[in-house]
Amino acid sequence: MILSIDTFSENLGISLIDGHKLVVKNVYHKVKPFSELLLDKIDSIFNQLGYDPSVLYAVCVNKGPGSYTGLRVGITVAKVLSYSLNIPIYSFSSLEAMVFRYRHCGRKILVSINAGKGECYLSEFEIKNSEIVQLSDIKLMKIKQFKESINSEKDLIVVKNIDITGKNVVEIIDDLSVEGAFCALKEDSKEDVFRLEPVYVRPL
Question: Would you state the pLDDT for residue 176?
């Protein structure tokens, strides 16, 4: 089985996947730091199902962009599991996972995530021959500027925690642990357990 962890937003997502089958998906709203929740919730899932961690043959984790603190917690736990169980670790981009959910829409997809401080992360994708193609690097933009730049109803706009409405706008409410895992496996995005770090777009 694959354990998928998503900590990029206010929702903590943990999923167990067996082949193409979703075994369990649990989502927890952030009522306290993920560092106090994540390991406990993973243990709880295994205990409830009667599974031992040895059933895992891989772990998958969201590398961002998103909440940098949350991402670090998720990646750290995924690294520990990968190293201690001697299993591969895969990563997925939150932006690409958001696109993966709508990969059959047949349109260009503009994806944006609230980055705090009145800013957002932004990238553009399109689907070519059933493959997700990223057309632009991840940008950091003022949310106001992002809203003003949208001028085409032909494109699908997918957002997370951004107050915007329209016929072509879809808001992601929950986590990305399932879509992210399938996306990572499809692209075989295996990582070096010692080098994997969160995506950080904002200048240091």
Answer: 97
